[in-house]
Amino acid sequence: MSMNVGGGGGSDAAISEINxxxxxxxxxxxxxxxxxxxxxxxxxxxxxxxxxxxxxxKTKPENINLSIDKDGQVYWNAVLVKDDxxxxxxxxxxxxxxxxxxxxxxxxxxxxxxxxxxxxxxTQRSGxxxxxxxxxxxxxxxxxx
Length: 145
Hints:
This protein is of the alpha/beta class. Helix content is about 35%, strand content about 10%. The two termini are about 65 Å apart.
């Protein structure tokens, strides 16, 4: 801070003023820093991210539910499939139909991904085009429009 002591004019009283020049200098430097850094921070790749919503399953009679329990056993519409070869043959039969059914995969929460991946690989190699995963809806997720 500086003080201006009265000069001419014949007055003996001291005039005190705050010198604001350093304050203005600091504020201008901060303003310039913010103007430079804010566009750098906000620049990202422009994406239209999907919104989270829960779409109720439209159950059609031709849809196939493949359920996988925590032990890796696969159920074809609630009927246990004995082995992988039987499952592969059933999927291939559905893949050659003129209108392919959707395959809905339901897996227990404790199922190892290995079992789910094996079923997905079988459907992919058989030529099934529509495969979906069924989950329990989250209570906080809004429904589809």
